[in-house]
Amino acid sequence: MESSTSILSILAFHIPNFALAALMYTLLGRALLSLFLDPGSSNYIWRFFCRITDPFVNVIAIVTPKAVAPVVLWLFGVVWLFWLRVALLYIFLFFGLVPKAS
């Protein structure tokens, strides 16, 4: 029973952390890719990045001034996601739920 609870505590931390990291790096990739492609590009990688990150960008756009360029908005999103990952770590540390290295 000990191993199942430890696996659940590992997954409870790493799955949200992985999802936030994947979104953060995809948003960073979108910002870097925008240097080479125009916003209306039909490139399939660009469309994938836009489809994945647009819901989060829409949330960030609510709290960001409307005068900023889209690239700046995406970089703000990277910063917000970084701090969400830090907050997740601190929450798990506070409750003593961070998985221990074996």
Number of domains: 1
Q: Please tell me what the overall shape is.
A: elongated
Strand count, sense and closure of the main sheet? Answer: none
- Total strands: the figure is 0
The helix/strand order is: HHH
Q: Measured on Cα atoms, how large is the radius of gyration? A: 17 Å
End-to-end distance: 17 Å
The secondary structure category is: mainly alpha
Which ranges are low-confidence, i.e. pLDDT below 50, for 5 or more consecutive residues? none
- The portion of residues forming beta strands comes to under 5%
Total helical elements: 3
**What is the typical, i.e. mean, pLDDT?**
90
Helix amount: over 70%
Architecture overview:
There is one protein chain. This protein is an all-alpha fold. The protein has one domain. Helix content is about 75%, strand content about 0%. The protein has 3 helices and no strands.
Would you summarize the structure shown here?
It is built from 3 helices and no strands.
